Amino acid sequence: MQLTVLMDNNTIIDRYLLGEPGLSFHIATKQKNILFDAGYSDAFIHNASRMGIDLLKLDSIVLSHSHMDHSWGLAPLFRLFTEAMIEGLGTPKPEFTAHPDVFLSRTVDGLPEIGSFLTEASVANFCSMQLSKTPVRTTDRLVFLGEIPRSNNFENLAPMGKIRTSDGIADCYIQDDSAMAYRTDEGLVIITGCSHAGICNIIEHAREICGEERIKDVIGGFHLLNPPEEQMEGTLEYFSRLNAERVFACHCTDLKSKIKLSAVTNICEVGVGLKLDY
How far apart are CA 20 and CA 251, in angstroms? Predict the structure, then answer.
């Protein structure tokens, strides 16, 4: 498997690519080309082109959750598909994998919408839909983890805005937040979007689903943005025992949290342009 960072808040030094507050990874295996999240704008498409990655060859799109910095890039991606069809280039009809709540409307701090602008029906025009709360095998080694159990007492304790459901408006605990895990011979690679469910909860769920305790790498957002003290301390204690080979905390992980994590685990440089091979 090769994982390429198409979008992150930061770019790798001396790589002339675009960054934005968002996240998108391209995952290439022997079996499939997978887009994990789509950032906020069309910038990930620009970066993919610069790096020689053909998004018209996607077999699968996986959305970690609905928030705008992960889902709003889908609209320009589907415009790319449409323009390719007009030019007679042909387009894929990739699988679309996400939690069933991913299309519900969200609001926070007076913003009218921070969730997906696209509906399930509009995405289904371009993709074959695979919405699931339970794990989905994307390849023989790569799995979408489905709904993450909130099992510890220090993560995801407070809601983030409101969600509009068929039963009305409720506090939003981002139940659709998920992640992926890839099995290597040396252990699991955990691939996250924002980790609203809690990075420690995600890793524990991946271990259970995959039947593997060893963690090789962790890459993605940890949602440690000036976190409550109990969350930071719980996360530090967990990572001090995890014995991960490398940790690529990015996107929604602030500098203070990275510095604290670096005292207990191997924090590595990450940004747009990074390629990891397994």
Answer: 9
Rounded to 5 degrees, φ, ψ at 260 are: -65, -40
Give tens-digit pLDDT for 135-181: 999 999 999 999 999 999 999 999 999 999 999 999 999 999 999 99
Alpha-carbon separation of residue 58 from 48, 53, 144, 184, 242 (angstroms): 12, 10, 16, 22, 33
What pTM was computed for the model?
A: 0.98
Q: Would strands 128-131 and 95-98 be described as parallel, antiparallel, or unpaired? A: parallel
Only one residue has tokens 């191997």, namely: 266
Q: What is the CATH number of the domain that holds 221?
A: 3.60.15.10
User: What are phi and psi for residue 194, nearest 5 degrees?
Assistant: -125, -15
Banded pLDDT at 275 (limits 50, 70, 90): very high
Residue 90, pLDDT > 90, answer no
Asked if 67 and 23 touch (Cβ cutoff 8 Å), the reply is no
Q: Domain span at residue 241?
A: 2-277
> What is each CA distance from 214 to 63, 146, 200, 208, 243, in whole angstroms?
25, 20, 14, 11, 8
DSSP-assigned beta bridge partners for residue 98: 131
Please, which residues have CB within 8 angstroms of residue 248's CB and are 6 or more apart in sequence?
217, 218, 219, 220, 267, 268, 269, 270, 274, 276
Sign (positive or negative) of CA dihedral 227, 63, 119, 41: positive
Per cent of the chain over pLDDT 70 is: 100
Residues whose CB is less than 8 angstroms from the CB of residue 16 and which lie 6 or more positions away in sequence, other chains included? 50
- What is the reported pLDDT for 91? 84
Residue 255 φ then ψ, to 5°: -60, -45
Domain count, the chain: 1
